[in-house]
Amino acid sequence: MCHATIKIRTDAPDYSDIPVKMYDWEYSCYADAKEEIPLDAHKPKGKPATMTLFFDANPYHNLISGKSVTGILHQLNKTPINWYSKLQLTVETATFGSEHVTTRTCTEQVIDLRLTL
Length: 117
Hints:
This protein has one domain (about 1-35, about 50-115). The longest helix is centred in the last third of the chain and has 22 residues, at about 95-115. The protein has about 120 residues and is an alpha+beta fold. The two termini are about 30 Å apart. Helices cover about 20% and strands about 20% of the residues.
């Protein structure tokens, strides 16, 4: 598309209408959890950015094999920076299994993007 443009939106998304639930992790196995930051990481420069993720599974997408499809979209502020759509390697018998595989894949990608950025 020779006349197409890519627009980069730098304004942060407004999530003020989404309720935030605060949990007390004091008595859980995650009480002492800390974010893993590489020892050789540089200090942040510039303004903070918000990473937003949308992910879903399409169960039983392939009628022959019974496999589901994983779909993931990563946004930095309001600009899409990465997307992923792939047939899952396993056959899950329930929606929960397909969603769990999608969530694990998305989490691995978030960790990689955070280290890259």
